[in-house]
Design brief:
By secondary structure, the chain is α+β, with helices and mostly antiparallel strands. It folds into 2 domains: 29-144, Roll (Nuclear Transport Factor 2, Chain: A); 169-284, Roll (Nuclear Transport Factor 2, Chain: A), CATH 3.10.450.50. 41% of the residues lie in helices and 22% in strands. The chain has 8 helices and 8 strands. The strands form 2 sheets. A 4-stranded antiparallel β-sheet has the order 1-2-3-4. The chain has a 4-stranded antiparallel β-sheet with strand order 5-6-7-8. A hairpin with a 2-residue loop joins strand 3 (120-130) and strand 4. The chain is elongated and about 60 Å long.
């Protein structure tokens, strides 16, 4: 290949990469004015509905109109975790929330919702394009305070790591939790169905029974979708680096992570079936 041909190809590749990068960046841009209006309209409709305390049937709730289906599911899980409404970060709604409502742009797709009661509450939210408008696709949970950006919630769903079933038992537990918690943080429709499919693949019937018993006890308390494997209802991207796996006795592994200022954990019994491993028992800490 002569120098002229090489330079031509290199120039073409550079131009193509530059075009693709520019396209990717432009796809992240939002019309700040339009997105601000969408967020404000949602919060005004949501707060007004709660303040009116009417039970009249409607074709579409504010959540269905302005939130993604994945976020609607995530909001319920976060609410179970905190015993508060994640949308307003409170258990009760007040007129002051509506009267002092503000929406300001932070960066890229992130905006800050705030109100005063008289204490100031700040709630970072993120939007995603939806046709010619926008929907809210993420609301930062209470425990992450006023944080926003890629570290709080990746722009794109991270790929699921593979589970190592033919290495050591500890390799299996590490890789299973990396995959399972990565799935938990994804903004995806029908998340519970996908988590259930993973459990059915990697848990034995005995472990599934342990899981279901804990979930049923949570339902009796009025909170659905308790996940015994993570000792809660939802997993946060910032918690993944805190996961640790420690062997206690032969065949048993303690899995812990930091969550909202405390360490939670569960002990797993791992059983080898053929050439692979499965989780055979879930033991809660007393």
């Amino acid at each position: 290949m002569n120098t002229r041909t090489y330079l031509a190809i290199a120039t073409f590749c550079l131009a193509l990469c530059t075009t693709q990068t520019a396209f990717a960046q432009s796809s992240r841009k939002v019309n700040v004015e339009e997105a601000t209006l969408v967020i404000r309209n949602f919060y005004k409709a949501y707060l007004s509905n709660m303040l009116s305390e009417t039970n009249a049937a409607v074709d579409e709730t504010p959540e269905q109109q302005y939130l993604t289906p994945a976020l609607i599911e995530k909001v319920e899980l976060i609410g179970n975790e905190t015993d508060a409404d994640p949308i307003i970060r409170a258990q009760d709604v007040m007129n002051e929330m509506l009267q002092t409502l503000r929406v300001t742009h932070l960066e890229n797709r992130w905006f800050m919702v705030s109100y005063e009661t008289p204490e100031k509450t700040q709630i970072p939210v993120r939007v995603i394009p939806d046709g010619n408008s926008y929907r809210i696709d993420y609301i930062t949970p209470l425990w992450d305070e006023a944080m926003y950006g890629e570290a709080v919630m990746p722009d794109d769903n991270p790929p699921l790591p593979k589970v190592v079933t033919n290495g050591t038992a500890e390799d299996f537990v590490h890789s299973f939790y990396k995959m399972y918690t990565t799935l938990h943080i994804q903004l995806t429709d029908k998340l519970q169905d996908k988590l259930s499919a993973v459990r059915n693949k990697y848990l034995t019937p005995a472990a599934l029974q342990n899981f279901q018993q804990a979930a049923d006890e949570s339902i009796e308390d009025g909170r659905h979708d308790f996940d015994l494997l993570i000792q809660g209802f939802v997993f946060d991207p910032l918690w993944i680096p805190t996961i640790s796996v420690t062997q206690t006795v032969a065949g048993y592994y303690k899995v812990e992570h930091r969550k909202m200022g405390e360490t939670v954990g569960i002990t797993l019994k791992v059983k080898k079936r053929g050439n692979s491993y499965r989780i055979d028992r879930l033991v809660e800490e007393e």
